[in-house]
Amino acid sequence: MAQQAYMTETDGGGSDPERRETRIRRLLGRAVGGWRGDRRIWRRGLVTAAVALLLAAVMAAHSHIPNAIGNLGSLTETFLPWFGLLIPVLLVIALVRKSATALIALILPVSVWLNLFGGLLFDKTGSGGDLTVATHNVNADNADPAGTARAVAAAGADVLALEELKASAVPTYEKALAAKYPHHAVVGTVGLWSKYPVSAVKPVDIELGWKRAMRATVTTPSGPIAVYVAHLPSVRVKLEAGFTARQRDKSADALGEAIADEKLPRKILLGDLNGTMNDRSLTAITSQLRSPQGAVGDGFGFSWPASFPMARIDQILVTGVEPMTSWTLPATGSDHLPIAARVKVDTTAS
């Protein structure tokens, strides 16, 4: 009798893992049960499937979207990573509609997005390197230039570039950075601060009519490096004109020509390019230089706007040096986030 009672109690109660497994099976059974035997799962959600295929086509063929009308191609490429947010939305719709067709169609945009940006989901940062560089658009209307200067200097960069320098604020930045950076040069609205000697400073004509780009030689312990600092013209999204970037594109081509004519093999570009690495209009620049963020960064490294970063329009681009790591710095009084990278200087380049 005791044995029979024991067996009855055991069979009726079950262990906790068994009960959890039973619940999971029951839930899955309910979910699948609603689909089983439903022939309409292939006919429902055709619109959702079509949208999924269109999304995949836009991401895969973004370079073929014409710029003739409102620079639509460049606008798409600026915010291209965010197109991935449509995928979970379409997934929910497909599940609610119980559409097998839509679910299968979603495989394509998922594959395209992962092919384009999947590598950025992983931390590729390394160690080592012998030169740290940083850049920051400090915002001409920055209410605390001294605090911004101290915050950026705290990152420990050996070479620091600042853009959108207001003439009246330059002395404040010079004073705040003097202790850490004995060498500096300011050209128009851009400036360069360095722990190492700076020479051969000159403006770079980016066809604006005023000075927003410069070039200098920074003599590091491992050899000289040509450092460019640039702030390309701003772009706007206007209802009547689309993505207005003509002047930015013209300046990008001029800057690309200057970099191509550079004699030194080691080159670093620091600045606010008002465009992402995906933007075809910056090809004159990006075809010559590589981004440490893309090579050895952690995540997308969005830098603008500081309150809710949506795009990486501030760039560190290099050639002749080996990227080791790249990161985004904390917010300052600017509407941009500062960014930094550490590189290893190629001592074989001459």
UniProtKB/TrEMBL annotation:
Annotated TM spans: 46-67, 79-96, 103-122
Annotated keywords: Endonuclease, Hydrolase, Membrane, Nuclease, Transmembrane, Transmembrane helix
Listed Gene3D superfamilies: Endonuclease/exonuclease/phosphatase
Endonuclease/exonuclease/phosphatase domain segment(s): 134-336
InterPro entries: Endo/exonu/phosph_ase_sf (IPR036691), Endo/exonuclease/phosphatase (IPR005135)
One Gene Ontology MF term: endonuclease activity
SUPFAM superfamilies with a match to the protein in the record: DNase I-like (SSF56219)
A Pfam family hit: Exo_endo_phos
Protein name: Endonuclease/exonuclease/phosphatase family protein
